[in-house]
Amino acid sequence: DINTGTASGSASSFVTVGNTLFFVSKDATTGNELRKLTAGSQTVELVKDIAAGTVDGVHGTFYADSRRSEE
C-alpha cells in the first residue's frame, strides 16, 4: 500500500523499462512523485522526491521517450 490509510495512492502513467515498472503515485509524505517497482521485489521505491515535502513533484501525465541514445 503506497498511501496507507483510506486515501488512494492514485497510481498512473505506467512505463516499463527492462525489468522495472515506473509510475506516478501519491502518498501523504512525498506527494505525487515518480516511483519504481523492480521485478522480483515486493517494495515500491521512490525514485526522487522532486519537490521536497508533500508538494507534488509530478503534475499531469508522465511519459517515457522510447528512443534510445546513440552514443
Can you characterise this structure?
- It contains no helices and four strands.
- By secondary structure, the chain is mainly beta.
- It has a four-stranded antiparallel β-sheet, with no helix packed on it.
- The model has no long low-confidence stretch (mean pLDDT 76).
SSE order and pairing:
Blueprint: E1 12-17, E2 20-27, E3 31-38, E4 45-48
Antiparallel strand pairs: 1-2, 2-3, 3-4
Q: Overall pLDDT, averaged?
A: 76
Strand content: 35-45%
Please identify the oligomeric state. single chain
Radius of gyration: 13 Å
Report the major sheet: 4 strands, antiparallel
Cα shape: globular
Individual helix count: 0
From the helix content, strand content and strand pairing, which structural class follows?
mainly beta
What is the CA–CA distance across the termini? 39 Å
**Low-pLDDT regions:** none
Order of helices and strands: EEEE
Number of strands: 4
**Helix share, percent:** under 10%
Largest sheet, order of strands side by side? Answer: 1-2-3-4
